[in-house]
Amino acid sequence: MTDKSYDLVSMGRSSIDLYANDVGAPFVDITSFAAYVGGCPTNISVGARRLGLKPVLLTAVGQDPVGDFILHFLDREGVVTRFIPRKPGRRSSAVILGIEPPDRFPLTFYRDNCADIELTIDDVLATPIADSHALLISGTGLSKEPSRSATLFAAELARRAGATVVLDIDFRPDQWHDPRAFGVTLRSALRLVDIVLGTEDEINAALLSDTSQVSLTHSQVSDARVSGDIDAAIQTLLALGPRALLQKRGAAGSRVHLAQADAPPTQIDAPGFPVEVYNILGAGDAYAAGFLYGYVRGWDWYRAARLGNACGAIVVTRHGCANFMPTFDEVTAFVEERGGW
Length: 341
What we know:
Elements lengths: L5 E6 L3 E6 L12 E6 L1 H12 L3 E4 L2 E2 L2 H13 L8 E2 L5 E5 L9 E4 L10 H5 L6 E7 L8 H14 L3 E5 L10 H11 L5 E5 H6 L24 H9 L5 E5 L5 E7 L2 E8 L12 H14 L4 H15 L12 H10 L4
Parallel strand pairs: 1-4, 1-9, 2-7, 5-6, 9-10, 10-11, 11-12
Antiparallel strand pairs: 2-3, 7-8, 12-13, 13-14
């Protein structure tokens, strides 16, 4: 790749994450929480930095102690924060999580009057997107204005500059006034996107168009299903513009779908790494960080996806997200202990 000052610009939400210390306890019985930093693009930035990339984070925080907390952590990690605006009158967001492994992780977002959804086109213009190899955007950043227009504008700038645009679907139903609006908005953005990252549920949610197709609550992404044919859904999304879609498949690893003209996508399977699940939150963001490291470094699709799988597997064994992202040496040791690449 050509020389640029930064490897990655990640754009979107940030938060203080309060994770239950009482692992296994029902939410009503929690007695204390640990305070971490979170938010999909923020987690990915930290993960990418720990692996060895030079990432810029474009989020926004309030003029409040929570904003101080987030920025202090990011500065300590070495993520470039000087393009992060503070929004007067807005609040830095928060997330509260219960941990009941292996499959219950009740999650509550506090994003009313949220600072990062106030990102503007001017904030984008002040950020060195054209001087980065890749731009990472997320579905939640498209949920409201002015962040929606700013996110689309950032993707336009990146495409014009020859940077790769990566979309993490990041479907959070309770951040949308109508789940069908999520599908409409995401599909309209795909013309600007090169690579899509998502789970089966998120991929199906991206095709939502009418209420007869889905039974959806605002608390369970797993209800967002269009059909049982995930390969057909992926082919439909790739036809809208992206050249690759990376399907995150949990313990099974991930599958890379590469678009082909007038033919079904080529599939590349990257096996996962079996581990005991402690907390699934943040695993997808760790996967994205690992994949992006490999992609920016010029690795092939299989090896980059395999690194993403390893990063995700490590994080599901840990308590939080950004604070627990692995270093490149940690991931390498993890993979070698399990037979290598």
